[in-house]
Amino acid sequence: MQHNKGGSMRTANYTDLRTNLKSYIDSVIDDCDTVVVNRGNGKGVVMISLDEYNSLKETEYIMSSPETMEAIRKGEEDIKNGNCISQNEGESMEDFLKRVACTE
User: Fold this and answer.
1) Which neighbouring-strand residues pair with 47?
2) Which of 20, 36, 43, 65 is the most exposed place for a label (fewest CB within 10 A)?
3) Looking at residue 5, what DSSP letter applies?
4) What interhelical angle do 66-80 and 50-63 show, nearest 10?
5) DSSP sequence for 33-68
6) 3 state SS of 102
7) What CATH number does the domain containing 19 carry?
8) Is the Cα torsion angle 69, 74, 1, 12 positive or negative in sign?
9) How many domains does the chain contain in total?
10) Which is it for the CA torsion 25, 27, 31, 37, positive or negative?
11) Is residue 101 part of a domain?
12) Belongs to which family (predicted)?
């Protein structure tokens, strides 16, 4: 999941977009740019990468679940209060998970 990592917001009108479509698509994919295409009368569309779109949809899904949001809030509170287990430097994920399973 990535959210516009350093990308910029560009604007274009329909004619410019059509003329320079490859350049705009490349900047959206390669540079994480967001492109706003204005069509007049305050109407338009936004171009974002598929990765960015999927990330937004996943965030929307997570935030729509009260149970998931409560678990996140509880986890944040636990971390704030020091109620967490950290992975040791150099410890493999497999070993960490085994160690954590033994402490529960």
Assistant:
1) 35
2) 43
3) S
4) 90
5) -EEEEEEETTEEEEE--HHHHHHHHHHHHHHT-HHH
6) helix
7) 3.40.1620.10
8) positive
9) 1
10) negative
11) no
12) Belongs to the phD/YefM antitoxin family.
Distances (CA, A) of 87 to 45, 58, 72, 90, 91: 44, 26, 19, 8, 7
CA dihedral (51, 57, 59, 62) positive or negative? negative
Apex 75 CA angle, 53 and 54, nearest 5: 5
Query: Which pair of structure tokens corresponds to residue 44?
Result: 């338009």
pTM as predicted:
0.65
Q: What is the DSSP letter of 91?
A: -
The answer to whether residue 90 is domain-embedded is: no
